[in-house]
Design brief:
The structure is a single chain. The protein has 13 helices and no strands. It is mainly α. The chain has one domain. Helix 4 packs antiparallel against helix 12 and helix 6 packs antiparallel against helix 13. The longest helix is centred in the N-terminal third of the chain and has 30 residues. Keywords: Cell membrane, Membrane, Transmembrane, Transmembrane helix.
Length: 297
């Protein structure tokens, strides 16, 4: 197969993976119409996905086992808690109060948070271009968010705060787990982290909400299954494959379709509307994140 064909196939795979990831917010909003709690919905998502990750964890062995220390497994517990449990829980809570399109725009700022966290804790350097890009990104978020507040109630601010916490949790996971992935390999590490997250969700359910999970209409369980498979399991491997084909820099450029695809899906499925001001803010956010993500060879 020629390089151009490999590149093109990588683009198609990347687009499909990104759109499938973006559909998660739509499914959450659809499920909330049946008055399901955030904890129950997250529990359904994780329980449907975890059997596949258990199989993966059993068959896919760590990439460099000789480099793994006992303490590394403790870090997997930490990052599984932060990256896949805490970030998902904040996201599900936030989606109770804001539109799916706005949720994706706020989540999309996580690369800027990665830069800021790395600067604070690891003293990495932030270039002038990156500073400008961060300012552009947050200007776009403010414009988009302001356009939403104009038409909604104060719960939008609360929802936006939870989505920001979700983005912050995910960015912390990326910064902290980056040095572990080469030891375990991306597939094995993801499987381990997802298993830890499932245990965390189950413990949360037992402590906070022990009400029955068998009281919902079948649509809720179907949506939970689709979130687990269509918007979690499958796209996680599609994205990994696309990054391998295209490289991280090329993939980050294609990744900018994430907010746009969510907005389009929200319009088609949920009948969410986007004002001109909000659309301009969205484009500004995409430009800012694009500048941060792009690196010259």
């Amino acid at each position: 197969m020629s390089f151009s064909k490999i590149f093109n196939s990588g683009i198609l795979i990347a687009v499909v993976g990104i759109v499938m990831f973006s559909a998660k917010a739509i499914m959450v909003k659809l499920a909330y119409k049946y008055e399901v709690s955030a904890v129950h919905l997250l529990l359904f998502r994780m329980l449907f996905a975890v059997p596949f990750y258990l199989i993966i964890a059993f068959y896919v062995k760590p990439q460099n086992p000789h480099k793994i220390k006992k303490a590394d497994f403790l870090y997997i517990l930490l990052f599984g808690f932060i990256g896949y449990y805490l970030a998902s829980y904040f996201d599900f809570i936030g989606l109770k109060f804001i539109k799916a399109g706005l949720e994706r725009i706020i989540l999309f700022i996580y690369p800027t948070l990665v830069l800021l966290i790395s600067k604070i804790f690891f003293k990495t350097t932030i270039s002038k271009k990156q500073v400008v890009a961060i300012l552009i990104t947050y200007l776009g978020v403010v414009i988009t968010f302001w356009g939403e507040v104009q038409f909604e109630n104060s719960n939008v601010v609360l929802g936006g705060f939870f989505i920001f916490l979700s983005a912050l949790s995910y960015a912390s996971y990326l910064v902290g787990s980056g040095w572990l992935i080469p030891k375990f390999g991306a597939v094995a590490f993801t499987a381990y982290a997802m298993i830890v997250s499932t245990v965390c969700v189950f413990i949360h359910y037992l402590i906070v909400d022990r009400t029955s999970v068998f009281v919902y209409p079948y649509q809720v369980y179907v949506l939970g299954f689709l979130m687990a498979i269509v918007s979690t399991l499958i796209p996680s491997f599609l994205v990994s494959f696309a990054i391998k084909k295209l490289g991280a820099n090329n993939f980050s450029i294609i990744g900018s379709i994430g907010p746009i695809s969510t907005i389009i899906l929200a319009y088609l499925v949920l009948d969410e509307k986007l004002t001109v001001l909000q659309f301009v803010g969205t484009l500004i956010v995409i430009v800012g994140v694009g500048v941060i993500s792009y690196k010259k060879k």
